[in-house]
Amino acid sequence: MPLQRILAGMAPRFLRSPKFLSSRAVVHSNRSLVLLPFFTLVVMTVVVIMLFPLLALLNSNYMMEADRAELPAVVLPPCAAAYFRANYERSLRETPADERHAAHLRHIGVDHVYVVHYTPLRYRRGNMTAMLRAHGVHAEWVLGFDKEELNTSTDSCFHYYDPQQLTGPKARRYNTRGLFPRPLGPAQRSVLIKHFSAYYDAYQHNYQTILVLEDDALLRLGFVKRLDEVLRTTPSGYDAIFIGGCMRFYAWRRKTQTEYITKHIYRKQASRCAHAFILSQAGVRKLLRSLPLTEAIDFQMNVAMREENMTVYWVEPWLSVQGQFGEPTCVTKTDIKNAGSCRFSTQQRYSRSFDLRYLNETEVLERWENVPPFRHHR
């Protein structure tokens, strides 16, 4: 006999009477009515929790599309879009997926990192990779469009020189060209298209913030930490932030078109070299809108900044400089070990001790904290 029946038989007679059982049913019914709202609330809460990720995803997609609608529209020549797309497909074939997916610094707000690279210089890629690894940075290498691959077809697509084809602010370019009155050389055209190939990739993926480096960039000790501070303190709505420097282009000593924001951030209206800089999605689009490519890369940026009224900032002190062109051991020895043996470009007038200031932690911190005061008068 089941245990329940034995226990039921042992219960007093009045507990087994129909009257008592009916009263229990009424109490149970009333209790159910009391608990019904509670159970309903629990069920609704569970449903909301289950649907929340889906609602968040739909909302993020909506906001992304809204942001896209507010950004400058990009209309590329069909040939340029086709070239960029073909190079992107080539990059997918030649770049391991894990390398591409790791090319970001999202913990500080950078969605993707690109390195513009001249493919035949294999030693430079090896040295640059070692330096980036020392800084904890992974990057996607921008391949293709080497100068040996360019031809009359790419020239007619990217570099046409017919003023009658340009309208609006672009038509003024040919009245003001003084630095490069002749067509660009193969190396200049190659690095130009490589840069814009990276911008196109960022545009297609809707990356909100990208870091662009050239393959001869030398990074200061504590690069990622300083870059994080720069991104947190730069006013929102920027198009470009030039974190690298060259020659004697110091923001704190150049009063023309310079606005002091902080001792590290200065508002400018021009580029400062092109070996290390940050772009927003709006900046990416504005640069792409500057086609055709009529100037060297940094001057092409200046053209876009003037025509698109871009919001530009410079960082002091520099987080990066360029190594001497053609020196195969410069990047590795400068940024990792034995820095004294690496020379800098004589045109940039850097002493041998300059690279030591990029390696010594005490020197780096001192120079970061003690930026020369902003000169209000020349």
UniProtKB/TrEMBL annotation:
Cited Pfam families: Glyco_transf_25
Record keywords, A-Z: Membrane, Transferase, Transmembrane, Transmembrane helix
InterPro entries, sorted: Glyco_trans_25
Record-annotated membrane-spanning stretches: 34-58
MF terms in GO: transferase activity
Residue ranges constituting the Glycosyl transferase family domain according to the UniProt record: 113-289
Protein name per its UniProtKB record: Putative glycosyltransferase family 25
Organism per entry: Trypanosoma theileri
